[in-house]
Amino acid sequence: MMKVWLVSIFLMLAASSGGATYWPDDGNLFYPFAPKAGEGQSTAIHKDSPLFTGWADGYTGLVYGSGVDEMWMTPHLALGKAVGGSVDIVCLGDGGRITLTFSQSIMNGPDFDFAVFENAFNDTFLELAWVEVSSDGIHFCRFRNYVNNEDVGNPVAMRIYGLASKYKHSYGTPFDLSELQDTYNACFTSDAVFLSDAYANELKTNFPFLDLNNITHVRLIDVVGDGSAADSIGQPIYDPVNQPSSPGCDLDAVGVINQLPLNGIAQSIAFDPIPNQKLAFQSLELSAEADSGLPVVFAVQSGSATNFGSILTFTATGTVEVVASQPGNGTYAPASPVLRSFRVAEEIQHIFVEPLANQIKSGGSVRVNADASSGLPVKLEVYDGPATVSIGETNHVLNLANDIGTVTLRAFQPGDAATAPAPDVFVDFEIVESSASNAPVPLADWMAVNPLPGPAIASATDAYGRPAVVLEYALDRRMRGRSRVAGSGDLAGWTNIVPEIIGRDGAGDVMTLKVQLTAEEAKRYYRLMFEEQ
After folding, report:
1. Which CATH superfamily is domain 269-345 in?
2. What are phi and psi of 132, to 5 degrees?
3. Does this entry carry the keyword Signal (predicted)?
4. Domain coordinates of the chain in residue numbers?
5. What percent of the chain shows pLDDT beyond 70?
């Protein structure tokens, strides 16, 4: 009897909702569940959809749940456009929460008004989160939500409604603000018996403070999916729990579909990411530009640092967050602020991954050389490519597939107590048939018809403004060889150098690699070394 009643309330609410809701047949009953991304009548919205008019540009109220590794405590990565993939996220941890803010408010318009992006790598490993909105940052209203779990801990999109993370990475779960009005109205009718008392009372308390045409805050709260948490009807929710390193919701972004119009001409700020800094550097000069030409204002949001105009001075190790803003004038509307986060540490580091030749489809294996300037072990993962490709995170043995396609590897080094994380490095290559025109050939065969690439040398500065030397050379992806850079002060004791890659340009099968060496690292002499891969 209860299931029949639940159907009646959901159908009533959907009839007056502005959102596009799908009601598939689930046995003998109807539920408000849309299918997974890519299937007909799915509500999933791709990150590159022209529907999006803006993105979250600030955050507050961050509380990490249990089990989060420090490398995933990166809330600034939840700001701006959704990236997709697995790494450009902030991990909330089991039971964690974060509030995203919007300098240009979300408004209640036609159909869906905003969407939440998570990083699930498939359609079933979905780490769910409640979604709440506010107009004042104090009173929050939670969207009605429902989960019909058949498999404990393994939710699927077809059985999730009103929760973030319904869809895999690159696809947003959309929300319609008018549904909150519908649900609030239902709280004062006989249909209220089909909402839990806790949910209905909370909504009745906070909804009068909500302006559906001026939503400035969206809060995400991770659902601890062990059955102890309940949906808005009071049924237990199950999803993956106790995941190592990055448990709970992994938030990529919140995109806005219906946005309150600006008063004035829109403007935007270009503010490049700030590299991690060595404490001994003491300070740096910030640089950002507004496309209106108006001056940009900087402010330290958190961390042991102060700024005087564009000069930022840091006084201790730790994470520093800086916001660039432009308040507008009589002609231009305020720009969306841009937040940048970086770490100040005793030491900084970078990664060098040897360029890889194309590989022949074989199912064999090859070892990838990767080093960090700190001497700490580099970790590798397959970022993209055929599903059968894998790599040992620490032993760097790449197991090739019996499939052809492009493979992208991600190299990362999370740092330690004294050393900041290294910037991620991505390398790619092709797995090809042995008869393909771009199939690799032995180094000796390649050298018989091709001269060794001669390096071009130029003076430059590194990312921190220090003197550097740029070594540029071209590699053919058909050359099955390894390349190393070595330096010596007297042409006698050559030692390997861990240079910093500053560019990799592909043109057909030829790759131009620019390697940046600080003057200190490059020494007086250096050379390229090649050996069989």
Report:
1. E set domains; domain 4 (2.60.40.1380)
2. -130, 150
3. yes
4. 2-256, 269-345, 351-532
5. 89
